[in-house]
Amino acid sequence: MRAEIITIGDELLIGQVVDTNSAWMAQRLNEAGIELYRITSVHDDREQIISALDEAFRCVDLVLTTGGLGPTKDDITKHVLCDYFQTHLIEDQRVRTHIEALYKDRPDVLNRLTATQWMVPEAADILPNRVGSAPLMVFHHGPQMLVSMPGVPYEMEIAMTEQIIPYINNRRLHAESIPRSWGIIHKTLQVSGISESALAILLEPFELLCGAHLAYLPKDGIIRLRLSSYGEFTPQFMDHEFWHLKQCVKDYLIAETDEPLEVIVGRMLQEKGATIATAESCTGGKLGVLLNKHAGSSAFYKGTVVSYATSVKEQVLGVPAETIKAHTVVSEEVARTMAESVRKLLNTDYSIATTGIASATGGYTKDEVGTVWIAWATPNGTFAECFHLGKLRDQITDRACMKALIGLIKKLKTES
After folding, report:
1. Read out DSSP for 61-113?
2. Same domain, 193 and 268
3. What was the pLDDT predicted at 175?
4. What percent of the chain has pLDDT above 90?
5. CATH value at residue 352
6. Which of 90, 102, 319, 336 is least surrounded by Cβ atoms within 10 Å, i.e. has the fewest?
7. CATH number for position 221
């Protein structure tokens, strides 16, 4: 089954709202074995919506729309869908009862505009939206389907999880004929320490013999390699191909999953029963935020000292003023001392320190911007490395965090 997502709303096209819905829906569709063919965004405009629907139905089996279902005049999706499927609005008593119960403690919300929400297209199947007033509507277009959902992310996510995916799966289960397929399979690993072009040259023999599709996804010093099958190959075949891919890149392999690096670090630390702290200058606490981002981080993450000012490096982390004077704050010596001090200060097994130049201020030249020293203090010693991470402030700090995590993963693997 092929699907297209159509997001509706002027706010998406002027950049006022970021379309997080499509990424979330794409993941759920893949998990359900539904191939996402295209994502389209259109204005709250009748002709644009109709044109997008016509184009989608020429290409896919399932169309998913979000947005434009509110009670105000700019929300026109429901009326356009009525015109498109040649139907009209009728009152749905179940939807009315739900809305009246939803707002029973807010009589100011139950007004004549809210009442338009329980008017639904007669030709549509109406599914419950337990957390909102906009009904979930399913239209049938011959063998094809269109599902219309609200654009509010938490409403859409609950709708997809509780109603839409089960509804689609039930329709597929009872279809007269389902083409043979092993479902959509994605297998992803992560590598570092090699450029994208050099990696492509390295993998040329593999790609010549591999039946599955291989995609390169580079970002911040990591290249994700995704091996994909859209129903053509068995899981056993994909496991075999993935094993060969891992052998090809074993010298650069960071992870055999598509998880965030901080999740991988956390799991590795927990498996060792180890803890970590960070001392951050140029990254300003970003690394600590990543380590603390996911539930369960208290098992391994103890804290961060954000030593952005030189005085904090000296007074809190105990970096000698003589060391800073001799080598500057952006140096191997300072990075090592920061890592060792925060490890001792917070009594952890591991620590990471970052110190670098993220902008041409404080007497630094443009040529120096992007220079970052990272140090790792471990039970087996302290290690440091210098990186040159670009010229844009956010790019530098993001890349520094990734380099810090990559370095720790490599050291944890070596120790294992």
Report:
1. SEEEEES--SSSTT--HHHHHHHHTT--EEE-HHHHHHHHHHTTT-TTT-STT
2. no
3. 62
4. 78
5. 3.90.950.20
6. 90
7. 3.30.70.600
In sequence order, what DSSP letters do the residues of 112-146 get, joined into one string?
Answer: TTGGGGGEEETTSEEE--TTSSSPEEEEEETTEEE
* SS3 annotation, 186-245: EEEEEECCCCHHHHHHHCHHHHHHCCCEEEEEEECCEEEEEEEEECCCCHHHHHHHHHHH
| C-alpha separations of 213 from 116, 179, 223, 328 in Å | 48, 21, 16, 49
Range of the domain at 213: 184-255
Which residue type occupies 17? V
Give the span between the Cα atoms of 353 and 370, in whole angstroms. 16
Which letter does DSSP use for residue 293 in this model? S
Q: DSSP per residue over 323-334, as a string?
A: HHHHH-SSSHHH
CB of 350 closer than 8 Å to CB of 387 = no
Same domain, 294 and 407: yes
Residue 305's H or E segment, with its range, is: strand 301-306
Q: Does residue 311 sit in helix, strand or coil?
A: helix
> Which positions ≥6 away from 249 have C-beta within 8 Å?
189, 191, 199, 202, 203, 225
Q: 372 CB contacts (<8 Å, ≥6 apart)?
A: 282, 330, 354, 355, 356, 357, 386, 387, 388, 389, 396, 399, 400, 403
Which CATH number is 32's domain given?
3.40.980.10
Q: Identify the CA nearest to 40 among candidates 384, 28, 58.
A: 58
Give 30-80 pLDDT, tens digit per residue.
Answer: 988 899 999 999 999 999 999 999 999 999 999 999 998 888 888 899 999
Q: Domain check: are 285 and 153 in the same one? A: no
Q: Is residue 179 part of a domain?
A: no
Domain count, the chain: 3
Question: What angle do the packed helices 77-84 and 46-57 form, to 10 degrees?
Answer: 50
Tens digit of pLDDT for each residue in 59-71? 999 999 999 888 8
Query: For residue range 107-122, what is the model confidence (pLDDT) as tens digits?
Result: 777 788 888 889 999 9
